[in-house]
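Quick review question:
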């Protein structure tokens, strides 16, 4: 009987899969009206720089005519893009186009680095005893030359053209298009023509970013982009190839301690070219900037890394650029926030965020072949976003005036959590998760703080200019508005509604076209995590597949959160005020008008802002918490959730209120589960070890309640770090390294319960 039952279940599952397959291939099996509710009616021009920190750049590098320019497809190359015509050209246009790309000559200048004052000073200090003045140990010279060879090499023009041809073919096989706004490109060209070096600072969604961005900018006439790669992420053979293609690598010794002789020499080589000695086509930092070659720095950690969002390596390179401007090697540098968004990230890790082995040339080739085979026919779209450039010199002169007093999360929030105080201090939160590496430690403390805030500011600008892709909108609807499924006819209306709401909030979307085609395209991309089933009356039921696949949808939905972050924070704050009056699940349709106190609402918003990690919020350092609270209140009034009559909460839009609350539910529920796990955790343990314990608990809880959205390693490590900053967990030194243990304050069950209840008040089921 068991065998028969299994066979019947298998046949039923096969029949159901067959029905779903026929639905995908038949265009969802319905004839629907094709409408374009958003295309061409209103499309915001995103990416303007901060008017508070860089008002001159905000005015000078923008013209209203740039808004009218359309999009171009960077991988669309035809016969018309070459100087030749004919049937053979149409078949060889990729190769001919690549061979015609202009690559400016680049001369190597290792001797100038060797002759620089700083390197000579360090070399003299390490010369053997008895060496006369001017004599330098050949061994030390070879060590400096080895470091220079590790950092850079002159780009090879023919190799670059050949690589561009291979990348062009690869991208056309992998993606449907790579869209770039010509208005953004015009602003970058205008900044480059002004004479200052261009430094692009980008998000990091895929390992392909470091190949895709140089190709796109080379094809658009911005020259050879020098990419600052992570030396630990590549094998020696791959590093050698990337250096010949324009890659840059910091010496491994540069991250050593300040008192290490190898680290001092490595950092001297890195800073060697700080003395201005004319424009030289250079290889390292200041010489590179003086030569006006564009530099690409990734501000985010690479995909799959279990760590803070803001990259320590990216901060190091940004610090070197800032120091080059401060010492006068270049008068100024133009910073360009960059972002890349994908419908689906090709190499996104599915279930792990632990460190991986360095990528080698052979393993990279196999990964490319697997991508081509696994993504065949998936028609993924990509958007590249170049925000408005701004002056580094202008930012550094204005940003220091925005600094105010700051306190740790433990000082701000712990007394409120434990009930010892009801007053939230009127200061900003100090929360730095990105470690400071050796090169940054050599800077002044004030400059270190400036680099960290500049990195956060640029990352905020990159995220704000990113387009919301169709997969993010679809995942958010299925997770936070229709958990039990939705009919396709209603889903079409909801997709159009959420798209228009996104556009009205000043965020662009990465798609256009007929509504029916868009929804069909999006569902086909998510077919591994979404089921489309036939029901009666000819309609279709769309439902997210239960299980760990919900974690993947939750990651996609985070791309929508920046557009609705203010309203989501405000909705959760309102939920906390109503926690004692209204049940978490309603019944909202029976509620009357609830009067709220503006001061109490401000307090709840402040508490939630302090609780949520800076990695998630990415608030601008120049914006105070008080100003953000006022923005939250204004957004709630604009979207109709509140009425400015002694702040009354409306009862006419409960669905939208619940949707906004649920946008933050994955992170908040991860915090609540981590608080419940405190009494069960095995401590002391390392940070990574305890994060694994929390993750296992999140996964076990998800198996019971079906809420897999919070069973994410990234959310687990955020919970651990937040509890460490809050004083729930304390760090002690041990021979095995830093260890976490439970603080005496939260060793009692009562205080653990207070922490869990404090978090639960913001969660709406």
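Suggested answer, residue by residue:
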């Amino acid at each position: 009987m068991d065998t028969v039952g299994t066979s019947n279940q298998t046949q039923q599952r096969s029949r159901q899969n067959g029905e779903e397959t026929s639905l995908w291939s038949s265009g969802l099996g319905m004839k629907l009206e094709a409408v374009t509710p958003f295309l061409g009616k209103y499309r915001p021009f995103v990416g303007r720089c901060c008017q508070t920190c860089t008002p001159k750049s905000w005015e000078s590098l923008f013209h209203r005519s740039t808004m009218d320019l359309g999009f171009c497809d960077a991988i669309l190359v035809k016969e018309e893009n070459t100087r030749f015509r004919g049937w053979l050209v149409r078949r060889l246009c990729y190769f001919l186009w690549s061979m015609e790309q202009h690559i400016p000559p680049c001369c190597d200048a290792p001797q100038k680095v060797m002759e620089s004052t700083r390197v000579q000073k360090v070399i003299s200090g390490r010369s053997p005893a008895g060496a006369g003045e001017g004599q330098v140990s050949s061994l030390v010279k070879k060590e400096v030359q080895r470091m220079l060879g590790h950092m850079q090499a002159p780009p090879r023009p023919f190799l670059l053209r050949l690589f561009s041809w291979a990348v062009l073919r690869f991208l056309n096989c992998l993606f449907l298009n790579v869209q770039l706004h010509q208005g953004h490109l015009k602003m970058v060209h205008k900044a480059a023509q002004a004479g200052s070096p261009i430094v692009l600072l980008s998000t990091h969604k895929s390992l392909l970013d470091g190949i895709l961005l140089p190709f796109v900018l080379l094809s658009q006439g911005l020259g050879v982009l020098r990419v600052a790669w992570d030396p630990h992420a590549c094998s020696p053979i791959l590093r050698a190839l990337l250096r010949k293609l324009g890659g840059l690598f910091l010496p491994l010794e540069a991250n050593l301690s300040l008192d290490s002789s190898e680290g001092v020499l490595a950092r001297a080589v890195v800073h060697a070219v700080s003395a201005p000695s004319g424009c030289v086509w250079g290889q390292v930092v200041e010489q590179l900037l003086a030569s006006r070659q564009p530099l690409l720095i990734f501000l985010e950690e690479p995909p799959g890394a279990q760590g803070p969002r803001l990259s320590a390596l990216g901060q190091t390179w940004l610090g070197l650029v800032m120091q080059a401007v401060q010492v006068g090697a270049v008068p100024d540098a133009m910073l360009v926030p960059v972002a890349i968004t994908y419908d689906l990230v090709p190499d996104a890790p599915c279930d792990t965020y632990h460190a991986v082995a360095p990528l080698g040339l052979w393993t990279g080739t196999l990964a490319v072949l697997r991508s081509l085979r696994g993504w065949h026919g998936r028609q993924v779209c990509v958007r590249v976003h170049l925000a408005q450039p701004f002056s580094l010199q202008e930012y550094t002169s204005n940003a220091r005036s925005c600094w105010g007093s700051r306190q740790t999360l433990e000082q701000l929030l712990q007394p409120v959590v434990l009930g010892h105080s009801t007053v939230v201090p009127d200061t900003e939160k100090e929360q730095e998760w990105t470690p400071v590496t050796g090169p940054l430690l050599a800077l002044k403390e004030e400059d270190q703080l400036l680099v960290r805030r500049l990195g956060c500011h640029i990352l905020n600008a990159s995220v704000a200019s990113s387009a919301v892709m169709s997969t993010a909108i679809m995942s958010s609807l299925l997770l936070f508005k229709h958990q039990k499924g939705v009919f396709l006819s209603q889903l079409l209306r909801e997709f159009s509604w959420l798209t228009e709401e996104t556009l009205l909030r000043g965020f662009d979307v990465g798609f256009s076209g007929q509504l029916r085609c868009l929804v069909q395209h999006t569902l086909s991309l998510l077919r591994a995590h979404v089921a489309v089933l036939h029901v009666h009356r000819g309609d279709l039921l769309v439902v997210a597949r239960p299980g760990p696949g919900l974690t993947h949808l939750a990651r996609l939905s985070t791309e929508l959160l920046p557009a609705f972050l203010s309203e989501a924070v405000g909705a959760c704050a309102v939920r906390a005020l109503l926690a004692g009056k209204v049940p978490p699940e309603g019944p909202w349709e029976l509620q009357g008008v609830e009067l709220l106190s503006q001061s109490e609402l401000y307090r709840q918003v402040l508490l939630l802002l302090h609780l949520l990690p800076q990695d998630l919020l990415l608030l601008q350092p120049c914006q105070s918490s008080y100003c953000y609270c006022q923005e939250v209140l204004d957004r709630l009034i604009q979207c109709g959730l509140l009425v400015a009559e002694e702040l009354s909460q409306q009862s006419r839009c409960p669905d939208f209120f619940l949707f906004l609350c649920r946008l933050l539910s994955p992170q908040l529920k991860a915090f609540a589960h981590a608080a419940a796990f405190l009494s069960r955790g095995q401590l002391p343990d390392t940070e990574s070890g305890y994060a694994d314990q929390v993750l296992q608990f999140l996964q076990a809880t998800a198996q019971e309640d079906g809420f897999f959205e919070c069973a994410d390693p990234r959310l687990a490590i955020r919970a651990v770090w937040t509890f460490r900053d809050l004083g729930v967990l304390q760090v002690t030194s041990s021979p095995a390294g830093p260890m976490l243990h439970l603080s005496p304050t939260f060793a009692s069950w009562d205080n653990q319960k207070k922490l869990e209840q404090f978090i639960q008040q913001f969660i709406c089921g």
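Why it works: The chain has 31 helices and 19 strands. The chain has a mean pLDDT of 81.
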